[in-house]
Amino acid sequence: MKTLLVLRHAKAQPDAPHGDWARDLIDRGRRNAQTMGEFIRDRIGRPDAIVSSDAHRARQTAEIAAEAIGYDAPITLEHAIYEAWPADLIDVVRSFREEANTVLVVGHNPGFENLVVALVGLGPSEVRLPTAGLAHLELSVAEWSQVGPSSARLVAVHTPKGIGD
Fold it and tell me: In sequence order, what are the residues at sequence separation of 6 or more whose Cβ sits closer than 8 angstroms to the Cβ of residue 125?
């Protein structure tokens, strides 16, 4: 069984002075990324890998969460996560290294909400991931390459507000 942790990037600048890809986290976003990293460390455990969109706000979220978790391996940056459709995101998940049993993936909406809906087999409005929201999924597959629609169970959705920030 594999575990997928789907973390939407934390709160970022509302405007894009240097383009959407380059948006920075705001102070609240940095705090929330820290909170979610601590939550993962304390309640779920250290992931075997972290894969993030290469967009600046996602990369910042991944780095802050990784530090809070105590994750010291390199974070994999994956451009294909940025502005991706669910089928593209499933392809990213299928490419994870097989020896990793738990992977934290950091990216964006609407793709991440739609990915969770597809993997769990829910209706399109049944999952909401606010900024820094985390979907905890258990996959009923032995290998990442087997991931597909309706191959996961939603354990829970956690938010910084819901866990005390």
Answer: none
Collapsed DSSP state (helix, strand, coil) of residue 137: strand
Number of Cα atoms under 13 Å in the Cβ half of residue 95 = 14
Give the global pTM.
Answer: 0.95
Owner of token pair 């009923």: 140
How far apart CA 116 and CA 86 sit, in angstroms, is: 9
Please give the structure tokens belonging to residue 85. Answer: 């459709």
Q: Is 109 contained in some domain?
A: yes
164 within domain boundaries: no
Residue appearing with tokens 């974070």: 75
Q: Is residue 59 part of a domain?
A: yes
pLDDT tens digits, one per residue of 10-37: 999 887 777 777 889 999 999 999 999 9
